[in-house]
User: Which sequence fits this backbone?
């Protein structure tokens, strides 16, 4: 368990409860503030309650209600995509990535790979 405190807030959009809770616990133990969401619509609701946009969005693509592609399209239309980076977490390596995302990590994701990608792509809170 890390004792490092990060100033970065992460939005974790994942419909699988077990995966979402495990990633949230791990990332919080690494010092990140994690905002969980179960799908794209829930993520938009979470974002609407925040004063600042998160430093990074970890996004599943295949979800009910609003999938990752529709979520990205909404962020693009509102201009929010220009304010944050998005890393896609997907078990579907052949799915095309939405335009504007920073990268893709396969599921199941290795912890070291996830933490390295967050360190590279996340913007610390101002």
Assistant:
């Amino acid at each position: 368990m890390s004792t490092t405190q990060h100033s970065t807030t992460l939005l974790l959009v994942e419909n699988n409860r077990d995966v979402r809770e495990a990633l949230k616990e791990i990332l919080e133990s690494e010092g990140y503030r994690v905002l969980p969401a179960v799908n794209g619509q829930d993520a938009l609701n979470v974002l609407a309650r925040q004063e600042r946009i998160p430093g990074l969005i970890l996004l599943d693509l295949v979800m009910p209600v609003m999938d990752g592609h529709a979520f990205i399209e909404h962020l693009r239309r509102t201009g929010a995509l220009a304010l944050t980076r998005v890393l896609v977490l997907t078990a579907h390596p052949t799915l095309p990535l939405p335009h504007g995302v920073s990268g893709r990590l396969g599921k199941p994701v290795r912890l070291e790979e996830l933490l390295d990608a967050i360190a590279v792509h996340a913007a610390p809170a101002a």
